[in-house]
Structure formats: C-alpha cells, structure tokens
Amino acid sequence: MSSIRRLVLHGASRARRGQRSFRLTAVLFSLTGGGAWAQPGPSADNWCDFARAGPTTPLPAPVALSAAHAQVRFFGTGPSYSDADLALVGVLERGPVDWDAATRRYADSLDGVCALEASSRTLGPARVFAVGPLAVIRPGTGELPLPRHARVAVIDLRELPEAPGLEEALARAISAVSTAPVARLSERVRHHVGMADELSAESEYSGFINFVDLRARAPHAATGRAELPVMLLTGPTLAPSAARFAVDLRMARRAWLVGAAVHTSVAESKWMPVGARGVLVRTARLEDAQGAAPGLIPADFGEGLARPESLPSMQALQAAALLGTPAPVDRTASVMRNAPPKRVPPEVVPAEASSGIARAGLVILHGATRLFFPYFATVGDGIDGRLLETLASVDAEPVTKREQTQRLLLRFSEVLQDGHGFVFAPGAPPPVGYFGVVLEQVAGEPVIRRSMVTEVHPGDAVTSVDGQPMSEWLATEQARAAAATPGYKHDVAIRRLLRLNGPTTFGLRGVDGATRFVRVQPQPRMVTGPASLRGAGDLADLGAPELHYINMAHEVLTTPEEFQTALTAAQGASGLVVDMRGYPGVNTYQAAQRLIPTTFSTPFFRTPVWSGPGAFEMREEVYELEPLSSPSYAGPMVLLVGPRSVSAAENFSMMLTGARRVTVIGRRSAGTNGNITQLMLPGRMTAMFTCMEMLNTDRSRFHGVGIVPDIEVAPTALDLSTGNDPELRRAIAFLRTGQ
C-alpha cells in the first residue's frame, strides 16, 4: 500500500474520533517512516548516490552521448575542455563501441558527472488528498483542486521522475498554496555568446566570448487563495528538478523539509540520457545574496528514530507546521561543493591518431555544431545521420593516420553546407609541393586560368589525375567539401588538386579538343589569385577611357590608402566597376561608406547565445553607417562577383546591393557569411564552422543564396586561353548602354 493511501485511511479513521492533533503527528510519522528533529545528514561529497535518473531517449546512443558531452564541455563545473575530451577518447578507443559501458566509464572518470540507469517512469496526473487540515499534494500533470478548508500543504517530492513537465508541475504546486511570489536562488553558470574561438584568444575569429555569470531565476508565481505553511516530503534520492525546488523553498524559508537531507549538487545538475542509462552533469552553482548555497540542506523533520514516542510533542509539531517560519539554513554546518563553473581554455594536446581520437573528434564536433551552428533551419538537420555514418567508417577501417581523421571530420562537416567548414591538422607534414596553376570552373570542369608549368596552358581542362577520371575524383572530393552553393563547393574541392605528394600525371584537354597527358613535378610554392590581377585605373585599353575599375582582391589592393588613391582617380568617371571576385584586403565597411552616398544599413548579424544550459536565444544586431567623403564616388557602378566571393567579400556586396547601389554581373557568390569559430579536437585537429547567422538588409535569407547577379556571365575555356575577361567586358557594355 502506498504512503499516500496509508495516509488517507489513517487520517480518515482518526478524523472519525475527532483527534485532529494526534492525526497531524501520525500523518507526518506515516509519511516519513518515523522521524526526529533536524539532524546532521550524510556527506555532500557523494552526491551522485542521492539523485534520481530521468527517462530514456529515442536518440541513437552516439548522438545522445554527443549531447551529454557538450553539456559537460561547455557548461559543466568540473573538467577542463581537454580533460573532458580526453576522457571521451579513452572510452571510445576500442570498437565496436559498447555505448552503455562507455557512458558509465566516461562519467566515472570525470568530476561533476554521474552515470545512472535511466528510468521508465513518467509524470502522472497531479493528485491532492485532504486529511483534516492537511492538503497532501502529489505534483503532476493537470490542475490542482486544492480543498478550501486546507490549512497546511504537504508537497510530496519522493520518487518523482525527472520527466518532462516536472518543473512546471512543481511550480503549480507552490503557486496554488501561495499568495506572494516565492523567490528562487540565482545560479552561477557558463554563458556563451557564440562559441569562443579555441585556437587562440588573439585570433581574428575571437569575436565570440565565454564567461561565467550569475543568472537570476524568476520567482514562482502565486495564485492561491491563502498563504499556507508548506512541508516538503523528501526521500533519500530526488530528481534534480525536485531537489532544486526543495533547495529554493527551504533557502527562502518558505517550506520545512520532512524526511531526508537534500544534496544541493543534485539540484545543480542536468539529466542527459544515453541509451539504457544516462549522466547527470553538474552545470550550475546555486547562490543567494550571501553566496553559495550549502552543499547539504538538512531535513527539519528527519529520519533516524523508529518509535512514535521519539517524536517531538504534538504541540511543538503543530506550532512548527501551522504557525512558524523555518529558521535560516545553517550555512556553516554543511560541506561546500567544488568550484563554480569556469571558463576553461583548451590545452594543446599531442598530435596523434587512433580510432578513439577519430570517434571522439566526430562526437565533439557534432555536439558543438548542435549547440552553435545557426543554419539548421536553412540547410536541414542531417548531422545525426552523418555522425552515425562517419562512426561506422571508423569501425570499418581503424584509424592509424591523422589524414584519416581529417577526412572523416571533413565528411561530417560537408552535411552542414557551410562554406567555412574546414578541418586542419596543425603540425602535419606539408605536401611535397604544389601544382603551379590557378584553376577555374567552366561547365563543371576544372580549367586552367593561369599556369606556372610550361606544359600546362590557360584554357586546358583537367580530365584525369593519375589515371582517375576527373568525374570520379570530383565526386570523392565533393563528398567531403563543405559549401553552401554548387560553385563554391566545386572550388573547395578542386583546391585539393593543387597539393601534390609527388610527380603527378594530369590528363588535359586543350581548347582544340585534343587530350594529352602531362607529368607534373611538384612546385615549391602554391599559385593563388583572384579571377583578375588587373590593377585600379581607367579602362582605356578596353576602349572605355571614361570608365574606371577598382580590384578589391587582397592580392591587388592591400591598404586603405591605395583604395582612396584609386577612388580619387575615379572622380569624374562616368561609371565605376568594382571587382569583388576575390577576397578583400581593406576594411570593407569604410570602403562601402565611400561608395554609398546616403545612410545605409549593414546586414543583420544573429549570434547564438546560451545564458547557461537550456537558456537559448538568437541575439540580433544591425548597424546604420554614414557616408564618408573626400574621396567618395556616387556615380553608376557595376559589382563583379563569382563563386570565390565569400564571407567578407559577400558582406561588402550585401551592403552595396542592400542600398541598391550597384548592378551585379558575374556568377553567384559562395553564399557563406558570418563570423567563424574554431574548435580544438583531440589529436590536435582544428575544425571551423560559421557561428553567426546573416540576413540580407531586407531580412531575407542569404546563406546558400549568396549574391545573385542581375546579369549572369561566365568565362569559357577559350576566354581563359586568350586572357579575355567576359565579366568585365559585360560591365563596360552595361555602364555605356544601361543594358
């Protein structure tokens, strides 16, 4: 028979004899199994033994462990990033992985983390039992019909599952018996404004921050008709939400604790299910104006005595329950917990390779992107399936080289459709040399734009690599090339043609249609560059002296002074061509301010913000910029863009197009803008991804769309062989004719 059922039968029997005072004492004794006044509880050190697990999850175990590890890594109070990551490596080393066993061993190796068997229990309907002046409340779903004659509320927290809806059920319970809001403790937690760059705090990508701060929690609302005294029934184990509820109410002196002491660390933890078990992760430190809450909150009426005659007198019990306010919790008698959450920068770890390192890297990257990648609603959410796919690849072929790990991480990143999704292996040996050419995409093929190799000519299409057809080679490389648009995906893939590990035979088809094979020796340096290396000036050589041209590529234009000099020279020109087919080398905001003669807006910058675990928002910013003069240009303009116009180049272009300042000619840009973050992974790998959502100035989607030309123009192999620039020539024609 349940305690609640015994309470009802016992209370009803006593009520018939009118013995209300004895009934109150007996009811509390029945609920606690015998009790005494407050006494010292067990140590707060072994808090894991006093927590109740939550339900299982339908997520595959690797996906669920990724979420759990992300909580430990980004919000946990215990281990450093590196310690948590290396613990993950250790439990994933041998395959195939037993994920339940791995979860247990992972938790056992880390402070602030517990492994528990998951529970199948769900939250039942709320129940209220009236026993004389007592209203005994079992929190649950639905409303609470509180008896009008109730004079004392007893809220039963024992054996409540850490199930969805529990926090709301507890809030309803205290709300129904209160006429004034009930304060809750604040929590010191780790905040993330974006994901702080882990490679270097001094890096160019360090615009995101990670810090520890105190987060206030709104008080429990009050909806009751009367302010009733409250007793909380606590058992030897509590669900984290129930423990937090108990700590809040007892520290606020709003309720008495009846039963067992409450471990504050349980109240500060979050349940993360993994397969048949799960982990509790301590993610906060509860505090009030006096500082951290004690590690152990003793029961006011507790366990320890077996006989009813050991209870305090009926009069004393009635006075405490019906009239009194609990005394402040003794902050000196309880053991304190470990330190509050802290920002822990990653440490440099050895550059190694193993199956455990590869599996852990994939799980960590999955967890980080799940928390911080902002474009799932745009590109679709395929990362769970890709994690399972890449982990299966490790099982099929054990990892012994860093190159294997890098390829697996690149394969994972490809599903993000993110043009910033690169993976690097710092310290890895460089290639033997490089294919000394600049490649361009023409009709889906890599074609030579410029060449430092005597036997390889501009306009040659690459048809094979060491006998492998280019179509097959491209399919392999594009499967691990992250990009938001097809043109940029092709560009990312063909960059890998440039790194040579020895003499390589390329099949080449000339503009005459003949195919030949050239054995290329690795060159000592890579050849790079935008579509055009033309410098700023008038276009008289192309028959348009009245027009001017400025190439924004960093290989051509490197300083603000050079830009201003070029703009000064363009004064009086009847039209200006701004070439943004490369990556800019100057401050593009100041450049835009000199090209847009009116007040204009930047794109919308939307950053993922976590104010502790479970508190997520997208923080949005947009800025108005004023024009700059001396020099400036207000005449007609054409903007040239292409597949390599990415990130900062697109940000510049978004301002010009948003202000309706330019006609765009060329090919669609990369469709990838926003600040990047870098994630350090085991084996000394570095993964990058976009950590900011960008919207056009009219709030329309940009990612995967990019800058779309008003007039589309693409080069042919013949154009490349002859040095013709069809985009520039089309820009001249437009500025002259308006068509």
From TrEMBL:
Domain Tail specific protease intervals: 513-714
Species in which this protein is naturally found: Myxococcus landrumensis
Protein name: Peptidase S41
InterPro entries: ClpP/crotonase-like_dom_sf, Tail-specific_protease
SUPFAM superfamilies in the cross-refs: ClpP/crotonase
